[in-house]
């Protein structure tokens, strides 16, 4: 569950203080968990006995260990570096410059992309609400968890826009809302409204409110606009307060349904739910949409991340013809 858990009381005083420090910085909960994980791994590797023994200069040897002994990917090594630099520079106030270590060799991976026909085949294998979730990923370029965290007030049917709140990098953005799915969205929103009325009749109807909004606006947690667009069938318990509330569908449930749909279509690609997002970007490039616009719609902080899709879309526009296609019978 992506609701921030209470700070653990059973862990060491150092980890308790560090977790409170991270949370005080307002970082995403997923980032908090990642930073705590790499901190524990680093401490175990160096066998530190006290906080005073922790040295930023030891980060380099640990990063080399990850590459040479654990054979980790470049992204994993980079994540560990970011986490440990945050630990030493921000929390322990140590100097963290001029690290020298063996870097994991970065591989250029071209995204797996559906053709439009393949995307349609997979979507048509799904039942609602999973079908609508896939349509939003393909039609709007959202990540799976960005779709699942949508609230009713994030959907603007009049302007044909979807607002993504606290996306990757803790940034908000707006993206396209495909007109063709508006009737299905309306039906889903009506379903949520009816389900919310049922919960209210049972003295329930609460949803998770990010940050301190639940205290600032106590009535918003039961308002219709804050309800999740894709609510779970079963109620869950807020780990912070013990209150019964309705969270959104879990990502692993959707991933399982999409994998089954891909297998049913017999598409021989290493595809997943994220392939819909890759396909969205590729379709826009094929339509000659400006890459800066695509960058904004996807929420990329660096246009270089968006440019990877040119390797996919460009294959069809180079004018190159395979030699064997020019052979005559």
UniProtKB/TrEMBL annotation:
<dbReference type="InterPro" id="IPR050090">
    <property type="entry name" value="Tyrosine_recombinase_XerCD"/>
</dbReference>
<dbReference type="Pfam" id="PF13495">
    <property type="entry name" value="Phage_int_SAM_4"/>
</dbReference>
<feature type="domain" description="Tyr recombinase">
    <location>
        <begin position="109"/>
        <end position="322"/>
    </location>
</feature>
<keyword id="KW-0229">DNA integration</keyword>
<dbReference type="GO" id="GO:0015074">
    <property type="term" value="P:DNA integration"/>
</dbReference>
<protein>
    <submittedName>
        <fullName>Recombinase XerD</fullName>
    </submittedName>
</protein>
<keyword id="KW-0238">DNA-binding</keyword>
<dbReference type="GO" id="GO:0003677">
    <property type="term" value="F:DNA binding"/>
</dbReference>
<comment type="similarity">
    <text>Belongs to the 'phage' integrase family.</text>
</comment>
<dbReference type="InterPro" id="IPR002104">
    <property type="entry name" value="Integrase_catalytic"/>
</dbReference>
<dbReference type="InterPro" id="IPR004107">
    <property type="entry name" value="Integrase_SAM-like_N"/>
</dbReference>
<dbReference type="InterPro" id="IPR013762">
    <property type="entry name" value="Integrase-like_cat_sf"/>
</dbReference>
<dbReference type="Pfam" id="PF00589">
    <property type="entry name" value="Phage_integrase"/>
</dbReference>
<dbReference type="InterPro" id="IPR010998">
    <property type="entry name" value="Integrase_recombinase_N"/>
</dbReference>
<dbReference type="InterPro" id="IPR011946">
    <property type="entry name" value="Integrase_integron-type"/>
</dbReference>
<dbReference type="InterPro" id="IPR011010">
    <property type="entry name" value="DNA_brk_join_enz"/>
</dbReference>
<keyword id="KW-0233">DNA recombination</keyword>
<dbReference type="GO" id="GO:0006310">
    <property type="term" value="P:DNA recombination"/>
</dbReference>
């Amino acid at each position: 569950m992506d609701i921030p858990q209470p700070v653990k009381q059973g862990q060491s005083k150092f980890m308790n203080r560090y977790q409170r420090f991270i949370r005080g910085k307002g970082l995403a909960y997923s980032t908090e968990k990642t930073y705590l994980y790499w901190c524990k791994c680093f401490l175990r590797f160096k066998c530190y006995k006290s906080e005073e023994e922790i040295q930023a200069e030891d980060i380099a040897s640990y990063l080399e260990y990850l590459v040479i002994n654990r054979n980790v990917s470049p992204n994993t090594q980079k994540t560990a570096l970011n986490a440990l630099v945050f630990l030493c520079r921000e929390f322990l106030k140590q100097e963290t410059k001029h690290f020298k270590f063996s870097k994991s060799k970065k591989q250029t991976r071209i995204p797996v992309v559906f053709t439009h026909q393949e995307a349609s085949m997979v979507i048509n294998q799904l039942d609602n609400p999973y079908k609508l979730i896939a349509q939003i990923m393909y039609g709007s370029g959202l990540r799976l968890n960005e779709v699942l965290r949508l609230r009713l007030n994030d959907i603007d049917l009049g302007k044909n826009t979807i607002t993504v709140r606290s996306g990757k990098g803790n940034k908000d953005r707006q993206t396209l809302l495909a007109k063709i799915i508006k009737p299905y969205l309306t039906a889903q929103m009506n379903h949520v409204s009816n389900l919310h009325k049922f919960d209210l009749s049972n003295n329930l109807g609460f949803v998770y409110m990010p940050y301190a909004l639940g205290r600032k606006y106590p009535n918003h947690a039961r308002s219709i606009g804050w309800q999740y667009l894709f609510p779970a069938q079963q109620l869950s318990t807020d780990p912070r307060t013990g209150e019964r509330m309705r969270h959104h569908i879990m990502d692993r449930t959707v991933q399982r349904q999409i994998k089954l749909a891909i297998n049913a279509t017999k598409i021989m690609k290493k595809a997943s739910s994220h392939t819909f997002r890759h396909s969205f970007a590729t379709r826009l490039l094929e339509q000659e949409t400006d890459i800066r616009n695509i960058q904004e719609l996807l929420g990329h902080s660096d246009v270089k991340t968006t440019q990877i899709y040119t390797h996919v879309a460009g294959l069809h526009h180079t004018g190159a013809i395979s030699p064997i296609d020019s052979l005559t019978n």
